[in-house]
């Protein structure tokens, strides 16, 4: 009878021990596998976020593509624009071309940057005799972002300091055939120039070069003349 009670008591204890061992083993397995399961879940969440971001970027890219194809977007009569290259039906390069004052160019470029995500690939600027700028700009089309850095794509600063004669000196001129060039100094920097040359640091273009004179044109169309200094002439 005592043995029967002993076996019954130990049977209950054995069941309790087996249950504790199984629970402990389960907890150990969870502890071992949890980092891997957690990492797998993090990877899954990350992939879901990347997919959602890619879908959102593609949607914005498609909207931008539709705007680029819309010829009513830029209604300035002096400006032409066109899609230069595409990939899978989506524009990748875009260009603008026109002739206008520097202020008009600034307004248009600011409008463009507000609506499009662009990177400048190439730019060609030519100052015309009436003070306008003929410009041709080629852009790479980027994925639109909420916060974008704005750029200064103008050929020269819109506002410059007034012309200072003391900053300039005409050293010599040279004529070869029908072409006349001049060596000028601007703030201790020497430049060989000819008609049409652009001096970006000064914001001036060379309007004319003659035997003893160089005429410079400012953005507002005003002109300044440099002449060869006579021997013995000194700055005051």
Short description:
This protein has two helices and eleven strands; from the N terminus they run H-E-E-H-E-E-E-E-E-E-E-E-E. It is of the alpha+beta class and 236 residues long.
What report would you give on this structure?
By secondary structure, the protein is an alpha+beta fold. It folds into two domains: 19-146, no CATH class; 165-227, SH3 type barrels (Roll), CATH 2.30.30.830. It contains two helices and eleven strands. The protein has helices spanning 2-69, 102-115, and strands at 79-87, 90-100, 118-127, 133-141, 168-176, 179-186, 189-194, 198-199, 204-209, 213-217, 223-227. The strands form three sheets. It has a four-stranded antiparallel β-sheet with strand order 1-2-4-3, with helices on one face. Strands 8-9-10-11 form a four-stranded antiparallel β-sheet, with no helix packed on it. A hairpin with a 2-residue loop joins β6 and β7 (189-194). It starts with a helix and ends in a 9-residue tail after the last strand. Mean pLDDT is 78; it is low at 232-236.
